[in-house]
Structure formats: structure tokens, C-alpha cells
Amino acid sequence: MERRRMTARVSDFLVHATHFPEAAREAFAIEFDRFVDQTDGIAQSERLFDLLSAFALNFDCPWIAYDSLAPQKGLKSAQRDPAVILNFPDEWQKRYFEMGYDRIDPIIKTSRTRAGAFRWSEVYDDVSTTEDERRVFDEAATFGLRSGVSVPLHGPDGSFAIMSFAQAWDGEFQNRTIAYLQLAALHFHLKVAKFDNSGAIEEMPNLSLREKECILWTAKGKSSWEIGIILGISGNTVNFHIKNVMRKMDTSSRTAAATKAVQFGIVEM
């Protein structure tokens, strides 16, 4: 009971601990230990994501995103299927796919060549970052994602994922904060990989023609109303098909389902 009362106060304590390094280190360690303890025995990616989200809030990061990507050219991944879990603002997700920013995202480019966590500001200020790539950061900021840190997660056989944490204001992440977020991201990634690889290989989801049409237009940034007009069906019918796709893809958002459909090759942009 005493441990629960103590950890419940840690989030508030962290705000005032910056002037007391020893106390801050203890608070960070308590929160990380708590996160690891809570994930013990959990074998559902969504539940693990919820726990990681709660942990990230202690560092003032309300938004996180986990995305497994295709391996680099010439490498073949042993990963079972793409995993996409995020809680970024819906409007930013829509804008991101509508503009095709996944093709120029500087976070993805940087993560492929980096082993450790990095601040978004480092990438923005890098001389090799193009103006188009900086625009991705600039637009993300207009939707509330003003600063962040990303953690590349490279695995055997070319498997590759990125975990990103974002804040709503400008500012630099402290080195200790980055260290704990990186540890938490790695713990999450290893847990997901462990129970994904321990099960039977999952077959590619089988979508109906109408489901493919609805999720394709979703990936292109269209609303249910717009998709209904394009396909000549009601918005409620569109929502019905998209919910079916979300269920088959085992995702909690239409954007994540659309991303998975594209990564699986079920639909082509």
C-alpha cells in the first residue's frame, strides 16, 4: 500500500525535482521500475502501449507512436507483420498521410542510420535535412507536436521500428529523460517482439473489395463522408466497413489500419 501511495505522487514530484539531482534520479528509477513491473505477464500490444503512454506522461509526453517499418533495401525481415500503434492527434495523422509525408519523413530517414535516441531538433538543424523534410516538423508543430525524441529499434534480420515521444511545447529533452524513454521503448519493443514471434504466423488479413476501397481512401486522407460520396454509399456504411478493417487488422484507429493495409500491400497508394 505504501509503495502505491509513493508512486502515485511521483508524477507531481518530478515537476519539482529538477533542482535536486539525487531526488530526481530516484523518482525516475521508481517510475521505470513501476512500468516494468506492470508489463510483466502482459501479452497484448495495445495494453503494453497504454502502460508506456502512462509512463511517458511522467516526462510530459502525452503523445507517443510505435511503427515497425520495411527493412532497408537488401535485407529481409523476420518480423511477423507490421505493428503500428500511436495516439498522435487524429487531424495530424490525416494530414500526414494526405500529404504523403511518410515518404519524406526525416525521422524515418535518420532512424535508419542511427543506433541511439535523438532529439527532433537535432534533425531539424542538421545541414543535410532538406526544406521539404523540415516542413514535416513545422506542420507537426501546428498540430501540437512541437518537440520530440525518437528511438530507433534495430533487430536481427533487418527488422526495424521507431518509437517516438512528443511534447506540446518547444524545449530540449534532458539527457536523463531521453535515457529513460529509450529504456522504456526498448522494453516495449522486446515485449512485443517476444509474444509476436512466439505465436503461430498470422496470415494476411482477408479484406472484402468494399473494405479495401474504404481503407484505401482512408489512407488517402478522405473522411467517411467523402468516401461515401466517392463510392456512392452512406457514411454509416463506410464506418461499418472501416470498423471491420480495424478489427481484422487488430488496430484501435482507422489511421493505423490504413497504414497496416498499405504496409501489407493489400492496398496501393
UniProtKB/TrEMBL annotation:
InterPro entries, A to Z: Sig_transdc_resp-reg_C-effctor, TF_LuxR_autoind-bd_dom, TF_LuxR_autoind-bd_dom_sf, Tscrpt_reg_LuxR_C, WH-like_DNA-bd_sf
The keyword Transcription regulation belongs to this UniProt entry's keyword annotation: yes
Pfam families reported in the protein's UniProt record: Autoind_bind, GerE
Domain of life: Bacteria
Keyword terms, alphabetized: DNA-binding, Transcription, Transcription regulation
Domain (HTH luxR-type) ranges: 200-265
The UniProt record lists the keyword Transcription: yes
Protein name: LuxR family transcriptional regulator
Organism the protein comes from: Mesorhizobium opportunistum
